[in-house]
Amino acid sequence: MTHCPSQTDRGGPGMAISTGASPFTVRGGIEAVNTRHHQLGLRVFMFIVVAHWAEHLVQAYQIYVMGWPIPEARGVLGMPFPWLVTSEWMHYGYALVMMVGLFLLRPGFTGRSATWWKISLGIQVWHHMEHLLLLVQALAGANLLGRPAATSLIQLIAPRVELHLFYNTLVTVPMVVAMYLHTRPGRPDNADARCTCAPKA
């Protein structure tokens, strides 16, 4: 019986047959997004974060300025797509994406900008836990302390609309500070950064 060389068989000295496997790895992807693609990653992520924050601001405007009832105040995208506002899966999914994004982009920051980015990440971890609690209640069909609707811990003392606008503001502000410090040219504690986010002084 003849032997057919497999993709992993080696040829002569110094030669190897390609396995056809992709060179991409999770570690390599994280490395890339924190070095040569850090600036692009930050721009895309910040667009997502600010767009979501703006939706909360529009919702608050609809309630407090336009006088709309809370069920009708659904931001911009929530008007044609009401399920974006009512689905706990959507709220949790966004909170998870935001937490993962903050975590994945964190290694690209150094010095004071890294401190501000970590503050944002820490706040988002808690925000994510609040949304996880809301999702569990929705899936279980049983609400915290017998409330008529799914309720997070801080919602026991603050209304949901105002609370989650506050959460998103708390997460966004330190992110903006971190990016401002990170992209300033000639900043001494940015000397160790491995990306090209800060222009040369």
Q: What percent of residues are in strands?
A: under 5%
> What is the H/E order?
HHHHHH
**Helix content estimate:** 55-70%
Alpha carbon gap, first and last residue: 69 Å
Care to count the β-strands? 0
Q: What number is the mean pLDDT?
A: 86
Structural class: mainly alpha
Q: What oligomerization state is this entry in? A: single chain
Q: What is the overall silhouette? A: elongated
Into how many domains do the coordinates divide?
Answer: 1
- The low-confidence parts are 1-22
- Count of individual helical segments: 6
What profile does the largest beta sheet have? Answer: none
The radius of gyration computed from the alpha-carbon positions, rounded to a whole number of angstroms, is 23 Å
Fold and architecture overview:
Keywords: Membrane, Transmembrane, Transmembrane helix. The chain crosses the membrane at residues 44-64, 89-105. This protein has 201 residues and is mainly alpha-helical. It has one domain. 55% of the residues lie in helices and 0% in strands. It contains six helices and no strands. It has helices at residues 26-33, 38-64, 83-86, 88-105, 111-140, 160-183. Helix 2 packs antiparallel against helix 6 and helix 5 (111-140) runs antiparallel to helix 6.
Secondary structure elements and pairings:
Blueprint: H1 26-33, H2 38-64, H3 83-86, H4 88-105, H5 111-140, H6 160-183
Helix pairs in contact: 2-6, 4-5, 5-6
Please provide a brief summary of the model.
Helix 2 (about 40-65) runs antiparallel to helix 6 (about 160-185), helix 4 (about 90-105) runs antiparallel to helix 5 and helix 5 runs antiparallel to helix 6.
